[in-house]
Design goal:
- The structure is a single chain.
- This protein has a 6-stranded mixed sheet, with helices on both faces. Strands 2-1-4-5 form a 4-stranded antiparallel sheet.
- Helix 4 (108-118) packs parallel to helix 7 (153-165), helix 5 packs across helix 7 (153-165) and helix 10 crosses helix 11.
- The chain is of the alpha/beta class.
- It has helices spanning 20-25, 57-64, 86-92, 108-118, 123-136, 141-144, 153-165, 183-199, 211-217, 235-242, 247-255, 259-268; strands at 2-14, 27-40, 46-50, 72-77, 80-81, 93-97, 171-175, 203-208, 220-225, 228-233.
- It binds adenosine-5'-triphosphate.
Amino acid sequence: MECRDVCKSFYEEIKDSRSWKNLFLGKKREVKAVHQISFQIRRNEVFGLLGPNGSGKSTLIRLLSTLLFPDRGQLTIFGHDVVRDQRQVRRFINRVSVEASFFKKLSAIENLRYAARIYGLNTSEGERKALSILRRLGMNEDKAQTSLENLSRGMQQKVAIARALMTSPTLLLLDEPTTGLDPKSKRDVQEYVEEVMETHDATIILTTHDMDEAERLCDRIAIIDHGKIVAMDTAEGLKKQIGTASMEEVFFRFTGKSWEDVLADENTE
Ligand SMILES: Nc1ncnc2c1ncn2[C@@H]1O[C@H](COP(=O)(O)OP(=O)(O)OP(=O)(O)O)[C@@H](O)[C@H]1O
């Protein structure tokens, strides 16, 4: 998997009170969400993207999952260009994100059955697989029969993971899979990611704000800030570069943000 010189800009409408004209008409401001990012990921690697809020992690995941297209640069997944060969790319990948969408009135099982159909899987085979993933993630059959709107966010996140894994994706994009989860659910998800890596031919890209999680799960970590990769290495390598034993110190040195800053940003979102 390769990303070469990838850039993605957005245009935000801003109101400027300095002049009446701008106040009424607004004007466009360019936001460079990711800017000239380049990296290569090896097959069966867990690659972490660590960065403060708004640093460009989700944009990069959306680019890789063909939900957005780059303005410039090239992204290839197993040799397929994400823009030119979208259909092939979509067969390899699946994505779990914090804003996973479901039919909230339906149960986990019903949502998973529906997803199996959309993915073109044998429905009972898909359901069997998803249920075994849910059990492994600590969700029992009763909960799986409960409508999604009555499940906690942690439980919903487990359903999202089961849905993504149902297709046995070769590239799994996990966009903040544990953000906002209680410690037990977080551990369940992290252990499951480790299990997937041991038992499946999978490559994972994981975005997180959690430095312990990045260190525990990732073979290599890219630190991203203001749309650029400011460091990339193993956790050990990053710590060595800074001469510290702490990932929090690494994060602070490369982004100027402390863990407390990141948590405060998360709480004000
Ligand atoms: N659709 C959009 N329109 C305008 N700006 C956007 C859009 N999506 C993202 N951005 C901007 O691009 C930048 C990167 O956002 P992105 O969501 O990729 O960051 P992130 O690292 O995933 O943040 P978080 O950790 O808060 O999820 C931010 O400045 C954000 O405001």
